[in-house]
Amino acid sequence: MHRVRIIPLLSVLTVAALLGAWFSLETGSVSLSIRDAIQQPGSLNAQIFWELRFPRTATAFVTGALLGIAGTLMQVLLRNPLADPYILGVSGGASVGALLAILAGASTLVLQSSAFGGALLSTLLVFSLAHGQGNWDSTRLLLTGVVLAAGWGAIISLLLATSPGIQVQGMLFWLMGDLSAAQTPRVGSIVLVLLAALAFMLSTSLNLLSGGEMRAAALGVESGKLRVTIYLLASLAAATAVTQAGNIGFIGLIAPHMLRLAGARDHRVLIPGVVLLGGTLLLVADGLSRLVIEPRQLPVGVLTALLGVPLFLLLLYRSRGTYRA
After folding, report:
1. 296 with 37: CB under 8 angstroms?
2. Going by C-beta distance under 8 Å and a sequence separation of 6 or more, which residues neighbour residue 157?
3. Longest CA span, the chain
4. Global confidence as pTM
5. Which top CATH class is 3-318?
6. How far apart are CA 234 and CA 75, in angstroms?
7. Segments making up each domain of the chain, as ranges
């Protein structure tokens, strides 16, 4: 991708992210002006803005950006354009941890810690089982992750079937992806910056690995260590995203595809691109989730699925015979 095309693309994505943030901040059951909220710090509008709208908007962007990074790395790791951030069971482990916290009546902080602990446990299980005593390869990793995800799914079904009815709705909202209880994502923002920087530093190696493991090895890339690093970074990104907002599908799958179709196959462009595009997609989806059945709200994960399925099918149709990782 030529330099002359890189700058316009990232510029457009930056403007889109700013517009998405503005849309998210302005949208809700209560109409408010961002300018008034900032200029009148003691007003009701300011309280709504700083305590509800701003944390939710920030969380939406950070979560979408993390999903974009996780999806991009997973697609390189598994050499499969259909790989998404949750394919290796990270979301299942996080979901079980979160549901157990909800059943215990835990606070939001404990719920998030429990979800992250479940995601971390799932990551360690997949990594240790996929490696075993033999060589670690993409097929074995994928099969292990799929089987473990099925196991987590069974546990989730059991928890839902045996939980008191009054708690099931909250559990379902979390499972579908919900930003209504979002808090300012301080930890998530730090994780995003670190992961984006590390992934960008690995861009050249990611480009080589995308072209084939033998080619990468011939050019001096230690593919074994690189794949372990990719897996850990992608798992941390997915775990942090799920911890903040529950299961939100299609963002991590669609964002890399959209950028590749726009010509951004170089990971030096793709990494910052998916940060901006992933965050923007979730900002817009979250804003729409507050408008569709206003004054009630849809779980944002429902809307990303409803919009993501036809969009992904369209992207597949447009990329017939032209796609390469």
Report:
1. no
2. none
3. 63
4. 0.89
5. mainly alpha
6. 10
7. 3-318
